[in-house]
Amino acid sequence: MVSSSSSLTIASSHSFFSNDRSLPSLNPIAPSLALPAIRSSALAVTSRSSKGRRCLIRRMSVSKGDGSETAPSDMIFGPILEDGVFRFDCSVEHRKAAFPSVSFKNSKDREVPIPSHIVPAFTPTYSLLEEQQVVTFQFSPGTSFYGTGEVGGQLERTGKRVFTWNTDAWGYGPGTTSLYQSHPWVLVVLPTGETLGVLADTTRKCEIDLRKEGVIRIISPPSYPIITFGPFSTPTAVLQSLSHAVGTVFMPPKWALGYHQCRWSYMSGKRVAEIAQTFRDKKIPSDVIWMDIDYMDGFRCFTFDKERFPDPSALAKHLHNNGFKAIWMLDPGIKQEEGFDVYDSGSKNNVWVKGADGEPFIGEVWPGPCVFPDYTNSKARSWWANLVKDFISNGVDGIWNDMNEPAVFKVVTKTMPENNIHRGDDELGGVQYHSHYHNVYGMLMARSTYEGMELADKNKRPFVLTRAGFIGSQRYAATWTGDNLSTWEHLHMSISMVLQLGLSGQPLSGPDIGGFAGNATPRLFGRWMGVGAMFPFCRGHSEAGTDDHEPWSFGEECEEVCRAALKRRYQLLPHFYTLFYIAHTTGAPVATPIFFADPKDSRLRTIENAFLLGSLLIHASTLSNQGSHELQPILPRGTWLRFDFEDSHPDLPTLYLQG
């Protein structure tokens, strides 16, 4: 809580914070620099070169230097954005040292104080330990934690620890601590049902430690601010307030809310057409067919294999005439090959991420040796966007950004070196090491892709799917939960994963239905389709070398279950569309845990096999030996009416409507 000695300072030209506190001068030359002190692994001084570009010139330690932790102190705070939103910093100097926000849709909103007489209900403490800023919140027993973005494991996060470091995590499990996206965000539901949001606004690697009941401990290199939202009366109000900072989800085209069919890979245009026609012949609803990386010529982005996909425009026209849209993959790794026009153009325009030696970094991915666009730089983003614009002319309806953590083969870290150099725009943080921009690389790629689709046709809503992301990436792209497994554990976990992303500001997500790796059984696939048809993003996808995973691949009964599940989705499509319009315009979530119906009811806070879509409650069985008809649901208080579409089946979820 705020200490009794705290007094609020209303925003003025000379003071941002209550409890204004100064550190001794961190560097005697700092007053003569054009920019404030900022950090790398600690506080760092930056300056501008003769050309005005921000450059990292010195690191500075802010800990004692003997490995011990400084004594905890209350952070200073100031109101920003709107009533109930506060920014906390360790000191005035730390506030000046913080990098610009990449998560905020308008970074200035984090810097500009607002007049307010409200004081925070909870004030974190900070300490400094081995060049790390440690921030701690303490709450009363009975507090529940959610969010933390794309994470495996349980819905209620007490007892867990997450590291925000975007990682290619094929075959992850419930204990994997770093997945493909980073959301340094915790949704705190108090015993009263009131809810608070906590954002550590840093792009750097960040530890979120929830292992002790009622305690949030955030550890990351300084200096970074903490932004709190609330407490407000409902979790929805917190997420709406968060959206005023980081933005709402883009409004998807209606077709993107239908069923998507994907495979690594449909190896020819002929096979793609066969898949599309089989959906129509079997009267299984579907709107989209996806092309994985094998459509390319030797995995070169923006190319098509001349033998297997000789006429992509004709294929797209055929699909369009049959009621399908076509989505094609684009990775960040560009084959290093003189004579390849994309590589030559990028080299001419000097858009590649640099190694520590100042030369373009070379890393191996699918095409072999590759270079990587530096999406932190506006020139590189514009270059990429124009390539996307031209690519769209082939009849491309949507784009799938994969491997953009960025993933790199044959290295232990699975990514590029942390000392690679990005020539970032000043408003993003300027010239910095990859360790600073790693977690936002995928989001900035998705932004560039989205902007390229807008350039191609301003009258069509773009659709981009990204594997890597950061809090705020919902402004540009949908996401999926990565390379999951065809197991009952992953079916169960997929519900919580979709919900956690929604509780972290990303409502448009879903898993690879049926599991990406491994072979699903008919029962598992049918059950997963039943649940997956109710997720915000609904796509079946499977790995090369596995059995076919189309809805008709598992026998007649499973096919009928899948048909019924997808017919349910299409009958509810107006409801999905309305929920997304509300999410786009207000920041409200689409799919939520059932405790959103009654945040005070502690019975509901750990239920993992049910969720809400507005006033619709979906209750599913994720156990192999138990059908939905055998469940004994725990429902929120009030009137909940069970209904169906005359399609009841043990492998389909039970549906309830709030009365």
UniProtKB/TrEMBL annotation:
Annotated ranges, domain Glycoside hydrolase family 31 TIM barrel: 250-579
Domain Glycoside hydrolase family 31 N-terminal stretches: 125-209
Origin organism lineage: Eukaryota, Viridiplantae, Streptophyta, Embryophyta, Tracheophyta
Residue stretches making up the Glycosyl hydrolase family 31 C-terminal domain: 587-643
GO molecular function: carbohydrate binding; hydrolase activity, hydrolyzing O-glycosyl compounds
Gene Ontology annotations of biological process type: carbohydrate metabolic process
Keywords: Glycosidase, Hydrolase
Protein name: Uncharacterized protein
PROSITE patterns assigned: GLYCOSYL_HYDROL_F31_1
Record family assignment: Belongs to the glycosyl hydrolase 31 family.
